[in-house]
Specification:
Length: 341
Amino acid sequence: MILRYLIYNYLKYIAIFLFLFLITVWISQIIRLIEFGLNYESFYKVINLTVLALPSYIINVSHLIILFGAFFFSYKLNTSSEIIILRQYLGKNNLRNNLILTNIFMLLVIILNSEFFSQKLYNKYKQKEVELRSNFNIQIDGSKKELRLSDQFIIFFDEYDENKFINPVTIIYPENLIVKSKIAKVNYQNDKINLEFLDGTRVSSDSKEKSMTNFKNFNFYIENLVDKTVLPDKESYSVIELIHQKDQKLNSAGHNKIINYLLLIVLFTGIHRVILSLSNKNSKKFKNIKILIVYIIFVFTISSLSKYLLLAKINLVSFYCIGMALLALFKISIHKIYDLK
């Protein structure tokens, strides 16, 4: 019962920080796609679409999630003196073994997600993102009585009914055209938009043609020239696939991912010391700050090494030797800073 309470609360803090990190990433992805000029009808599609990308970000934020989850859980246990009771009744070894087993389970879940589950969802995300961005994202504002398509055209109108606009004045940017008519219609034909104007006048101020023409019927076609090719990136591959890629960027990402997995192993085999160590409030904060500084130095150095590896300024042997030395230093730092006396 006590062990269940310990593990439940530990996983609860991990889940809280995972949710906070992912919701931040989710909102940033939604904003990124909306900035491409998607209309409000596509907003719900964007929300559903970005959910598919979230599992691929877990591996990138998992280290901080584990650290912060352990910091806050340890703080709770120490401030309420629960850690003393737990250590007296269950013993340090029993607590340590159960936390390590829980961590091994979480490690397996993260690896399975990163190597299999997230890849399938991310590939669907990339495909749907390209489809969404390649659609004609026409935006209509009823209050301002205008219809626009990014840098293609804008229609000012008095009234509208579905795709029919009354007394419109249209500016077509690529052709430097101004069209004034009684009625305008917008029709979709495969990868084209047909702007159909009835009973009006067109004024051209293009460098090749300057004219004013009356017409009964005038059609203007806009083609969709967006590239629909889906280009896979590092989230689309497993670590084995990445290190066998000829593309240097993807290959470097694969080796960096291996170091990330090793860092997770170091954390999961040592984070129980953060949770089970006895400290007063100020001492705990100081210890947490020290280990965070060591972690930031590690991440910064590995990031720099990855860039050098990408630019072929260091070889793989040097990359892994420095990486393993840093991992050993990080492991030693956890043992030195958090004692289990």
